[in-house]
Amino acid sequence: MSVTVDEIRAVLARIDLPGGGTLLGADMVRALTVEGETVRFVIEAPDPEAARGMESVRAAAEAAVAALPGVSRVQAMLTAHGP
């Protein structure tokens, strides 16, 4: 059985950010796709400075999604936009 987008979003909603809040609560998840057992998404930091401190968040999000039943591969990219 395939994992659903709602299941993935529920897991991402529990990933804490360094400055407070959660990954999903801060609206940082973009381009979430599920293709069979492969999940891909982008974490969009507000600026490059914030992104530099978020590699642990990206890794935690990737690991949490990978632990879901029906997921065999996860690709989480971290990006930032701004000056």
SSE blueprint:
Elements: H1 5-12, E1 29-35, E2 38-45, H2 48-52, H3 55-66, E3 73-80
Parallel strand pairs: 2-3
Antiparallel strand pairs: 1-2
How would you summarize what this structure contains?
The chain is α+β, with helices and mostly antiparallel strands and 83 residues long. The protein has helices at residues 5-12, 48-52, 55-66, and strands at residues 29-35, 38-45, 73-80.
Describe, in plain words, how this protein is organized in 3D:
The protein is an alpha+beta fold and 83 residues long. Helices cover 30% and strands 28% of the residues. The protein has 3 helices and 3 strands. The chain has helices at residues 5-12, 48-52, 55-66; strands at 29-35, 38-45, 73-80. Strands 1-2-3 form a 3-stranded mixed β-sheet. β1 and β2 (38-45) form a beta hairpin. It is elongated and about 40 Å long. The chain starts with a helix and ends with a strand.
The secondary-structure element order is HEEHHE
Calculate Rg over CA atoms. Answer: 12 Å
What composes the largest sheet? 3 strands, mixed
Helix proportion of residues, in percent? 25-40%
Q: Which class of secondary structure composition applies to the elements? A: alpha+beta
**Beta-strand segment tally:** 3
Overall pLDDT metric: 94
- Order of strands, main sheet, comes to 1-2-3
**Beta-strand percent range:** 25-35%
Number of helices: 3
Low-confidence spans: none
Question: Span between N and C termini?
Answer: 43 Å
The outline comes out as elongated
